[in-house]
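hiii so um. not sure if this is the right channel but i have a protein structure encoded as tokens and i wanna go backwards to a sequence. like what aa goes where. can anyone help
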């Protein structure tokens, strides 16, 4: 097995930095010499846990493995790692969530010789890396119909969402399944779909009492026409408490905050963000200043919503949680032949952070991380690094003192590596950091 680590603890400034840089360490990792893509990252205690695809070069069609790793928050040292086969010839996203020193992940499994796909759910004890349980769920029996789109650990259960074939096998159904967190015992599931429709679950939120699902419904013969539905389940029984819908809205993220269910995504006229009562589904407010693009991610801290807008001109925006009023916005500058893309946001009490990529339309791209003053929207620092044919920062997570960003970068013509970077966010200064590794 080929495995190469490049871990550097950066307590001083890297080469070619302008202004004071907050970078602590970096991990660049080649799993097996193939296409390695870090997909998602979460914090559990003193550990950052990353999940992604590990490419396996083989004669003929390459394989893809599920890869999960626990990294020391302080140094980036790999404390434990695990792998499992996913598929041959297909690379799809993986999703991760954590709670109470446990981490849970889900991906699409395609066993050799089986035309069906499946939900592969795995649970680990974070301090030791012990696999607590695994579940392979064939939601449907058709050819390659099962695909997860998210996972969330609530105080009482682990919930997986995605889509599969519907009961008549004439269209797709949104599926949701709940597990007991420690044992992995099945609790309940639901399948929402009708003949001739494609019903797909895209986002999930949950608390102790309810599970919330957001998805789209479209005619099976015209998938470009999509309408939003949001469904609230009783967390104990799986019974539906309420459901609402909106025409021409596609959801990307759900978050619960202060009794509000926030739905982010895109509508026919641009970005979409609305707040609904978590108890009843009544709309409390809707963004009155939509802009071109899709609101691909949101994060809430106190009275503020931070949002990432992906489009021709990407942006980072802040809203007031109670009123929906826009507090500030930063539109990333663009020039002909170049692009700056924002994929994810996070925030702590003082700062908002955005992750993405920048570069030429048909040339090299860079791993991009930006930090803003949470109240004013002032840019604190901007970090660009690892210019290559395929480089992007795709997910991030933050606590009071450290920011962890996950993505990938090219290490050759046909290979990419995991790329994880950790930043000190306790002592931020205004300035620009440009690393050129």
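sure thing!! here u go:
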């Amino acid at each position: 097995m080929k495995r190469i680590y490049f871990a550097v603890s950066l307590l001083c400034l890297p080469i070619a930095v302008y202004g004071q840089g907050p970078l602590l360490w970096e991990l660049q990792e080649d799993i097996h010499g193939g296409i390695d893509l870090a997909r998602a990252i979460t914090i559990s205690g003193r550990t950052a846990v990353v999940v992604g695809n590990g490419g396996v070069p083989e004669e003929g069609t390459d394989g893809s493995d599920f890869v999960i790793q626990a990294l020391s928050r302080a140094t980036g040292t790999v404390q434990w790692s695990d792998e499992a086969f996913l598929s041959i010839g297909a690379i799809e996203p993986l999703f991760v969530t954590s709670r109470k020193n446990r981490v849970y992940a889900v991906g699409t499994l395609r066993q050799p010789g089986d035309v069906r796909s499946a939900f592969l759910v795995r649970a680990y004890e974070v301090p030791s890396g012990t696999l607590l349980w695994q579940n392979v769920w064939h939601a449907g029996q058709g050819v390659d119909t099962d695909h997860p789109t998210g996972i969330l650990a609530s105080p009482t259960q682990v919930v997986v969402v995605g889509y599969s074939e519907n009961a008549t096998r004439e269209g797709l159904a949104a599926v949701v399944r709940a597990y007991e967190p420690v044992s992995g015992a099945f609790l309940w599931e639901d399948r929402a779909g009708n003949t001739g429709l494609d019903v797909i679950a895209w986002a999930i939120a949950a608390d102790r009492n309810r599970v919330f699902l957001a998805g789209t419904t479209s005619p099976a013969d015209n998938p470009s026409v999509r309408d939003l539905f949001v469904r609230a389940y009783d967390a104990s029984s799986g019974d539906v408490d309420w459901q609402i819908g909106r025409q021409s809205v596609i959801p990307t993220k759900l978050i619960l905050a202060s009794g509000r269910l926030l739905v982010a995504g895109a509508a026919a006229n641009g970005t979409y963000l609305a707040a609904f009562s978590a108890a009843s589904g009544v709309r409390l407010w809707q963004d009155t200043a939509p802009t071109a693009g899709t609101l691909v991610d949101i994060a809430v801290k106190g009275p503020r919503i931070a949002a990432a807008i992906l489009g021709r001109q990407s942006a980072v925006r802040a809203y007031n949680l109670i009123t929906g009023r826009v507090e500030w916005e930063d539109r990333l500058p663009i020039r002909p032949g170049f692009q700056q893309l924002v994929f994810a946001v996070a925030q702590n009490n003082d700062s908002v952070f955005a992750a993405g990529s920048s570069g030429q339309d048909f040339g090299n791209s860079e791993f991009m991380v930006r930090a803003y003053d949470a109240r004013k929207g002032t840019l604190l620092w901007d970090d660009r690094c690892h210019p290559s044919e395929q480089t992007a920062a795709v997910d991030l997570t933050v606590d009071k003192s450290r920011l962890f960003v996950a993505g990938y970068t090219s290490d050759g013509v046909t290979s990419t590596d995991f790329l994880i970077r950790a930043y000190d966010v306790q002592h931020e200064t205004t300035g620009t950091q440009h690393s050129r590794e």
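oh and The chain has one domain: 90-398.
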